[in-house]
Design brief:
Layout: E1 6-17, E2 20-32, E3 37-41, H1 48-56, E4 63-68, E5 71-72, E6 83-86, H2 98-108, H3 113-126, H4 142-154, E7 160-164, H5 172-189, E8 192-197, H6 200-206, E9 209-214, E10 217-222, H7 224-229, H8 234-239, E11 244-253, E12 258-263, E13 268-273, E14 283-288, E15 294-297, E16 309-321, E17 325-333, E18 336-343, E19 358-364, E20 368-372
Parallel strand pairs: 3-8, 3-9, 6-7, 7-8, 13-20
Antiparallel strand pairs: 1-2, 1-4, 4-5, 9-10, 11-12, 11-14, 12-13, 14-20, 15-19, 16-17, 16-19, 17-18
The structure holds adenosine-5'-triphosphate (ATP) and magnesium ion (MG).
């Protein structure tokens, strides 16, 4: 039997507030492997922090079980769990020096002062902040304080590090640098990271796997690529990146995981069926990423064909130059519009098509996914 580092089994967490019940976490089951960088991603209030607090032991589940390294955590208080938490607001002790902050937890565990000091300074080196041990937190920048918070958590060598929006208070540039460093650090130390963020780009660039949450539910768990390329629900497709949605009717399911859909504007296309598509679904949505759509002149000899190309007629309704790319708005008729994003490879590209011009739009059928409405 495989033992996972962290296992959540059918977890429900409800809070009573002013006579009503809030279900913050709704039947969540997930298995997180040893050494994995696992991101919990979702909008504000979706239950990310609550999930983290349940793992840490700051909250008890209403029902369901938390296991860490195969061991059930019921009745085990937070300070006896092999996890450590890094919060967004650092939570450093202001009156202690950096070194004392990092040593604190070790000394609480009975590690003698000399050994604790040595480990504290090793941890400071690990987060690339040597030589600041004697300073007080307020004498450091925000990014440096966050590194100290990280060192303080790492020094205790937890099996799992829980991070709740740890870069949330930093400015964009510093945040990008820290994303890089955190990822490298995680690879070096090999500790399992469970990382909460509402920033999809952060999750995509850092995580081995992402769980997308909404309203307490874990909607989809997968690698960044799986989540981006094969979103299983409308919510996930919409939350991660930009997506076109075209309403349609599912006419037929073929055995190869594809189906034929009559789009609201008329044409019938082939597209990949989402794994999560309801078995009785008729009214559906077809999702296509803007960068997967190509544009050609109306006279181009392109046809929907056996090779899995979908070609539709459209009118260019608008274009927007955004530096690296140009975004084109394409009217397909009956009020259906698509956005296509084309890279500006040469400086002629951004002026290639004019508003009002009839064009052909095309994509590979594997780029279009049929989702529930
Ligand atoms: N102690 C509590 N008492 C009552 N309701 C709570 C409590 N803690 C959380 N909630 C509610 O549970 C839901 C999930 O909250 P949670 O803090 O887990 O969200 P989150 O995903 O971390 O959001 P954010 O991105 O804003 O930090 C929210 O509706 C919140 O109001
Ligand atoms: Mg939160």
């Amino acid at each position: 039997m495989t033992t996972f580092d962290v296992e959540l089994v059918d977890i429900v967490k409800e809070f009573e507030s002013r006579g009503s019940t809030v279900r913050a976490v709704d039947r969540v089951s997930v298995e997180i492997a040893d050494g994995e960088f696992f991101a919990l991603l979702g909008p504000s209030g979706c239950g990310k922090t609550t999930t983290l607090r349940l793992i840490a032991g700051f909250e008890q589940p209403t029902s369901g079980r938390v296991l860490i390294r195969g061991r059930a955590m019921e009745g085990i208080p937070a300070y006896h769990r092999p996890v450590n938490t890094v919060f967004q607001d650092y939570a450093l002790f202001p009156h202690l020096t950096v070194e004392q902050n990092i040593m604190f937890g070790l000394q609480m565990e009975g590690v003698d002062k000399k050994a604790a000091r040595k480990r504290a300074n090793e941890a400071l080196e690990q987060v690339r902040l040597p030589g600041v041990g004697a300073r007080k937190p307020h004498q450091l920048s925000g990014g440096q304080q966050q590194r100290v918070a990280l060192a303080r958590a790492l020094v205790k060598q937890p099996a799992v590090l829980l991070l709740d929006e740890p870069l949330g208070a930093l400015d964009l540039k510093l945040r990008k640098n820290m994303q890089f460093e955190l990822k490298a650090l995680q690879r070096d130390v090999g500790i399992t990271f469970i990382y909460v963020t509402h920033d999809q780009e952060e999750a995509i660039t850092m995580a081995d796997r992402i769980a997308v949450m909404n309203e307490g539910l874990m909607l989809q768990v997968g690698t960044p690529k799986e989540i981006y390329e094969h979103p299983e629900t409308h919510f996930v497709a919409d939350f991660i990146g930009e997506t076109n949605f075209i309403p349609g009717m599912l006419l037929e399911r073929s055995g190869d995981g594809y189906g034929r859909v009559k789009l609201a504007n008329g044409p019938v296309i082939r597209a990949q069926l989402s794994h999560a598509l309801g078995s009785a679904a008729r009214a559906v949505t077809v999702a296509i990423r803007p960068e997967r759509i190509g544009i050609a002149a109306a006279s181009a000899s392109l046809d929907s064909d056996e090779d899995g190309l979908t070609v539709l007629e459209a009118v260019l309704a608008g274009s927007q130059y955004i530096g690296t790319d140009t975004r084109y708005r394409l009217a397909l008729g009956e009020g259906v519009e698509l956005v296509a994003r084309l890279q500006n490879v040469s400086n002629r590209d951004s002026a290639a098509y004019e508003v009002g011009q009839p064009v052909k739009v095309y994509w590979g059928e594997s780029s279009a996914t049929v989702l529930d409405q």
